[in-house]
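so i finally got all the pieces together for this one. its two components total, 652 residues if u count the protein bits. some of the lines might not be protein, just check the labels. i wanna see the whole assembly predicted at once instead of chain by chain like last time, that was a mess tbh
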Amino acid sequence: MISIILKRVLDSVPTIIIGITLTFLIVHLAPGDPGIRFLDPSQSPEIQQVIQKRFGLNEPLYIQYWNWVKRVLFHFDFGNSFYNGKPSSEVLRSALLPTILLAGCALVFALITGILLGILAAIRSNTFTDRTITIIMMLFFSTPAFWLGIMFLGVFSIQLGWLPSSHLTSLYHDQLNTIGRFTDYIKHLFLPVLTLGLPLAATFFRYIRSGVIEALRSDYILGARARGIGHNKILFRYCLKNSLLPIISLLGVIIPALLSGAVIVEVIFSLPGMGRTMVSAVFGRDYPIILAASILAFFAVVAGNLIADITYSIIDPRIRYQTRKNS
Amino acid sequence: MSLLTVENLSVVNSPSGRSISILRNISFSLNSGETLAVIGETGSGKSMLCKSIIGLLPPGFSRSGNIWYISSDNTKISIITAEESDLLNMRGREIGMVFQEAVASLNPVVRCGNQITDVLSVKSKIEKNKRKKHALKLLETVGLSEPERIFHAYPHQLSGGMTQRVALALALAGEPQLLIADEPSSSLDSISKKYYLNLLNRLKQENNLTLILVTHDVDEALSFADNILVLYAGCMTEYGRTGDIQKSPAHPYTKALLDIARALKENNLPAAIPGEISSLTNPPPGCRFHPRCPKAQDICRVKEPSSICISNSHSVRCFFLVDLS
C-alpha cells in the first residue's frame, strides 16, 4: 500500500510542475502590468521603471521564472504581495480557514443529503416519492451556483431577514461565548454551504440512486436475499458499499470543482476565503499571490485524487488486487 | 409425507399490459430426503421455478396455484400467500439456494468468511464469538482444504470451483431442510463437476437434505435424482420416478433427451432435436413442443394436452404417448 501511495505521489510531480509553469506564463501574458496599476497615469516613466525594477518585472520572462522557482525551492519563499507587502503564505493562511470550512461543510452536507435521498429514491424507484426527489435534485443540479446564491440571499437574507448576507462572522463575534460563536459561524455559513452543497448533493444523488437500483437488481443481492439476510442489512452492508464506489472516484474530480465553486460562492457572500483572495489577486495582477494560491490548488487536486484512489482500494478489494498485480 | 407440494403453479410476467406465461400448471411433490432433478433446455423456466419456490421472483412476475411446504416444526405453509416477513424467516433456515453463477451470487466487496457469519448471525443461535469457528467448520464440510485462507479471501480471489463451494457453505449455514441447486455445476469443468456432485450427494446424506437439482445434463439427473421433472418452454412435459422415466419415457421430448444422453455416453454423434425452443413471448398454439415433435398431429397444433397419469407417480402431457407397454 505504501509503495502504491509513493508511486502516485511521484506520478503527480510532473503534473504540478507543468501546471505551475503554465500558470506562471498565463499570468504574465495577461494584459496589465502590476507596476503600472499602482501609479497615477500622469507619473513619469522613470517612476514606473523604478517600481517595475523593485518587483523584478523588468527582467525577461524566463529569468523572472527562474528567480521565482529558485526562491520557492531553496528558500520556500513565495514572495510578498504586491499590494500590501505581506508574505503570500500569511495572506493565504488567513484565507484558507474560511474556504476549508465552506468546502468541508458543503462536502459533508452533500454526501449526507445525496446518499440518504439517493437510497430513499432507489428503494421507492418509479413511485411518486422517487419522481419528486429526482425532479427537485435535477433542478439543483442544473442551477448555476451564482444564481442559486443570489436567490438565497434575496429570499432568506433580504426578504425574510433570517440569515446574515455576508462575511464569516458578525462584528460582535469576539464578545460571544463559545456556543454563541459556534451558532454565529453556522448562521453565516448556512446559505453559502447550501449554495455550494446542493448542486453537489444532486450529483451524488444521481450516482447513489442509480447505483443502489443497479445493486438491488444484481445477483449478489438476490443471493443475499435467498440466504435470508434482512432488508436493512442488504441495503447498507451489501448495496450501499457497492454503490459508493463511483462516488469515491468522483471525489477526485469533486475537490477541484469545490474549490472553483467556492470562488463564486465566496464572492457572492463576501467570505474572506481563498476564492475571493484569488479573484482580487487576479484582478490586481498580484503575481505572487496568484502563483502561491495556484500551487495550493494544484496540491489540493492531486491530494484529492490520491485520497480517492486510496479509499477506493480500501473499499473495493478488487482494485487492490489489480494494482498489486500490475505493479 | 411430502415436504414440498407444488400444485398448478403458473408464473406470468406482465410487462406493459401484455402477459407472458413463463410457467404453466406445474405440479409435483417432493418427499423429505429425496432428490428431484429438473431438466430442460435453456429458457424452459427452470430457474423461474426455483425462484418461485423460494419466493424471489423479479418484480413484475406473479404466481398462481399453490406451493405447500412443511416447515421443520411441522406447520404447513403456503409459500404463495405467506407474508414477506415469514418468507424472509424461512429463506436460509428452511430453504437454501445455490445459484448458477456462484461468484456473482457473492458480495464482491465482503470477505467470504464475513458473508457466512452474516448468515449465521441471522439464521442460527450460535454466539457471536463462536461464529467464526462454525464458519471455518462449514468451509471444511464443503471440501475446502484451507478454510482459514478462504475465510479471509474475497470472492474474486478464488477459483470457480471454490466459489461454488463457498456458495454451498452459505446456503447450508442456516441448516435448511430443502436445498435448491440451480445448475450448480454448469460453470465447472468436468472434474470439478464430478467432485461437486459427489460432495452434494454426501452432504445430502449427512444432513438429511431434500434436494431440487436443476440441470441440463440428463445423465447427471439420471444418476443423481429420485424423481425427474422435464420442462419444455415453461410447460411440464413429464414427471415421474427416475427409473420409470429412464425405462419408459412417455413424452417424445423426454425420449429425445434420453437418446441424446445415451448417444453421448456411447461416444456417438447424437441426433439433435430439430428446430429450437419456442419463445415464451410468442408461444405456438396447442402443445408447445409440436413444431419440433416427430409425432405431431393436427390436434397437437390446436389443443394443449392435459396431464395424463400413467401410474401413481408418473404423469405426462402428450396426446400420443411414446411407449405405453
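The radius of gyration of chain A is 24 Å.
The mean pLDDT of chain A is 81.
anyway lmk what u think
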